[in-house]
Amino acid sequence: MSQQVRGVVAPGKNEAVRVETIVIPDPGAGEAVVKIQACGVCHTDLHYKQGGISDDYPFLLGHEASGVVESVGAGVTDVAPGDFVILNWRAVCGNCRACLRGRPWYCFNTHNATQKMTLTDGTELSPALGIGAFAEKTLVAAGQCTKVDPSVAPAVAGLLGCGVMAGIGAAINTGNVGRGDTVAVIGCGGVGDAAIVGSRLAGAAKIIAVDIDDRKLTTAKTMGATHTVNSRTTDVIEAVRELTGGFGADVVIEAVGRPETYNQAFYARDLAGTVVLVGVPTPEMKIELPLLDVFGRGGSLKSSWYGDCLPSRDFPMLIDLHQQGRIDLAAFVTETIGLGDVEQAFARMHEGDVLRSVVML
């Protein structure tokens, strides 16, 4: 039997979000209903609200979440009612060419729940990133549920569902940061700070944080940055070269997603160095680079999807490292809020002093 819960809906482009009654169907084959305990407020949710993802309104927002499996549909064996899980938005299929080649983090056929959640009048909702977790409960594909240690705080666990995983993965999985490497991270919001944490975890010798906001640079230092550069007043390329013996960084992680910062990343890396784009650009953005420079500098230009993570591998590992005190995931939680505070949380994103607001249910 379907059930009704409260959830945060974006009704139209740039319209204020509102708490609505959501109808959750019983899980079908391969699906699960999850009782949400915590969900981070991510910039991607704001992009949905603003129409930057699609115009498939209304959206059920929220995707950076943890909770407890309430019920499962036919054929589900990997999770069971009572399991504490982190939700992910790239449930791998196991059968596409990437999965069959042993690269499931590049899965080309990730999937979501087949059934639709609705408003009480029957209007179908589009769940953000196939999750829709600013809600007391949500319906997902069972593959979107990853079991982790239930003793971890839900607010901490949920952040691995998107931003923190994207940043840590950009450093470790995509950038292959290694012991003794020099790393520059451009953009020190939640994802950029997570890339700093990942670089520190990987053993980087020097981690240079770049941002236009001194408050963010101060926070980046607490996350593990060894040096900071305010790009509003300092030439980024020259500063990074000066801090790396004139060579540039081995790995530069661009966590902004803008042409000008990508250009900085390209020229701030060492010869044969790596650029990782994890910041999400908008559709109209373009870059222009001299092809001779692309050829002559060598190295790698990569984009990082979700930190190239494999949730079944990476989520439990990072939770274990947090529990051991080797990384402090709790440092990303700036404030906890309720369902009715999401609109205000979006406004706070622009103030520069919030890594993550987390909705607690």
UniProtKB/TrEMBL annotation:
Provenance organism: Streptomyces niveus (Streptomyces spheroides)
SUPFAM superfamilies: GroES-like, NAD(P)-binding Rossmann-fold domains
Protein name in the entry: S-(Hydroxymethyl)mycothiol dehydrogenase
UniProt-listed Enzyme Commission number(s): 1.1.1.306
Enoyl reductase (ER) domain sequence ranges: 12-359
Keyword Zinc: yes
CDD domains associated with the record: Zn_ADH_class_III
PROSITE patterns, per the entry: ADH_ZINC (PS00059)
